[in-house]
Design brief:
Helix content is 47%, strand content 19%. It is an alpha+beta fold. Helix 2 runs antiparallel to helix 3. It is elongated, with a radius of gyration of 27 Å.
Length: 198
């Protein structure tokens, strides 16, 4: 899972094409001679998707092994992140929202003016932080923990079922099960049928 680029655009309704405000890339997974081409492709791909995204709308568009997640705000500030296909869309949009909100609050009075230069240090830091979705997204982290818990529980139940002779003893000694439930288990076992005890 990887984010390749994060680009912020200024795109008021009176302009024909979005203007790049700030851009950062992580092209370390590409060969040295491919990196400048990948950066140009990322700017072109992001700009094209922003142009075709309506105001206050989110959109994800796939191209080969990558997806551009784009969002155009009501005020003309727009953002796009290009990720590989394994990167979770929900986290990608959280990333886009965060960089747009941070940028708008930091440069609230000047971001929509012509010919401004912006510091990309915060954007670079966010790009690096969001490379691992589990570290920044609570739901992804919780889902990973739940998946691990399922495996542990499944192993525990399977290991308990492997000791069939002890299971009979446990059922006989159980105070929770009624006599009819115990009788049902014994009958089912004799008939070689599946018995599920709830």
């Amino acid at each position: 899972m990887k984010i390749i680029s994060a680009i912020l655009f200024r795109w008021p309704s009176d302009e024909k094409t979005p203007k790049v405000l700030a851009k950062v890339f992580d092209v370390s997974s590409f060969g040295f001679f491919q990196r400048s081409t990948v950066k140009q492709w990322a700017v072109f791909f992001s700009s094209t998707i922003i142009e075709r995204t309506k105001t206050s709308q989110r959109q994800s568009v796939a191209e080969n092994d990558y997806i551009c997640h784009a969002f155009v705000r009501y005020d003309g500030l727009s953002g796009a992140a290009i990720c590989d296909k394994e990167y979770p869309s929900r986290v990608a949009f959280s990333f886009v929202n965060k960089i747009m909100d941070d940028f708008a609050s930091k440069y609230s009075k000047v971001w929509d003016k012509e010919n401004q230069k912006f510091d990309t240090t915060d954007l670079e830091s966010d790009l690096e932080k969001f490379q691992d979705p589990k570290s920044v997204d609570k739901l992804t982290k919780i889902q990973k923990e739940l998946d691990e818990t399922k495996i542990i529980i499944r192993d525990t139940i399977e290991s308990a079922l492997e000791r069939g002779e002890k299971l009979d003893t446990l059922i006989d000694r159980s105070e929770i099960l009624s006599n009819s439930s115990k009788q049902f288990y014994r009958t089912a076992k004799k008939q070689n049928q599946c018995c599920i005890i709830l």
